[in-house]
Amino acid sequence: MSKITIIGGGNIGLSLAKGLVKSGQYVAAEITLTRRNLANLQEEATFGFQVSDNNAQAAVNAEIIVLAILPQQLRNVLEELKNTVRVGQIIVSVVSGVSCANIKEVLGADKLVVRAMPNTAIAIGQSMTCIAADDSADKEIKRVEQLFESVGAVVVIQEDLMTSATALCACGIAFFLRAIRAASQGGVEIGFHAHDALKMAVQTAKGAADLLLQTQNHPEGEIDKVTSPKGCTIAGLNEMEHHGFSSAFIKGIKLSAEKAGGLYND
Question: What is the pTM of this model?
Answer without folding.
Answer: 0.87
